[in-house]
């Protein structure tokens, strides 16, 4: 996965754990596509300060994912739900009414988890 996409996903999970300055620099760099010089002018710190702030934010986000694994767990959950939905979809085509009914229950439960 492209590193910028990965960083943005990690930010979605753990961004609130960053300092206000790190969040602002990170958002401008990754989400608004500002250059380091543009961020420095916007925030009022040096270009090197912006670079350091973003680097610390990236390190913190990676560290939080290593320790907590929320993004990884979410990916695993989505893959497992896809398998469950696929299996229930196949079961819903059964000739047995009870099997079709149970497959419907499974699909509704999976949809609830997805929300």
Automatic annotation (TrEMBL):
It comes from the Bacteria. GO terms for molecular function: DNA binding. This is UPF0122 protein IAA83_02740. The keyword DNA-binding applies. Belongs to the UPF0122 family. Keywords: DNA-binding. InterPro entries: RNA_pol_sigma_r3/r4-like, UPF0122, UPF0122_fam_protein, WH-like_DNA-bd_sf. The keyword DNA-binding applies. Pfam families: UPF0122. Might take part in the signal recognition particle (SRP) pathway. This is inferred from the conservation of its genetic proximity to ftsY/ffh. May be a regulatory protein.
